[in-house]
Amino acid sequence: MKLGAFSISLSVKDIKASKAFYENLGFKVFAGDLERNYLIMKNESSLVGLFQDMFDNNILTFNPGWDTDAQLVENFDDVRAIQKDLKSKGFKFVTEADEDTSGPASFVILDPDGNAILIDQHV
Q: Which of 29, 46, 72, 123 shows a CA-CA span of 20 to 30 A to 3?
């Protein structure tokens, strides 16, 4: 199963303070919009999303179809195929992708400790 680029999406209290903190760790702004309270920070192939007032807890995020530079990869497993495979293994879903669509879609599952895992396809 190809899940795509991995990042962690952090629910932050003060995006400007978090931005400064991660910049001091060597991260640079890769994407996002500070005025809209979200940034994607990058250090080599490590990605950290900073999100203020968007969700309550941290989220592990995978992006099928993207590499760590948000560039399209040719061969990837569609989010709906991943969802179908996980359903066949008995996974429970918080949200589901519409299996009658194509293109961008997402779903959320929880790990045994309640950590959210977002599979978020943008292509």
A: 29
Give the type of residue at 122.
H
Query: Residue 24 and residue 37: Cα distance in Å, rounded?
Result: 19
CA angle, residues 5, 21, 45, in degrees to nearest 5: 20
Q: Is the dihedral of CA 33, 18, 119, 7 positive or negative?
A: positive
Mean pLDDT of the chain: 97
User: DSSP states of 50-108 as a string?
Assistant: EEESS-SS-EEEEETTB-TTSPBPSS---HHHHHHHHHHTT--EEE---TT--SSEEEE
Can you list the domains of the chain with their CATH numbers?
5-121 (3.10.180.10)
Structure tokens at 107: 């779903």
pLDDT tens for 105-118 read: 999 999 998 999 99
Q: What is the DSSP letter of 25?
A: T
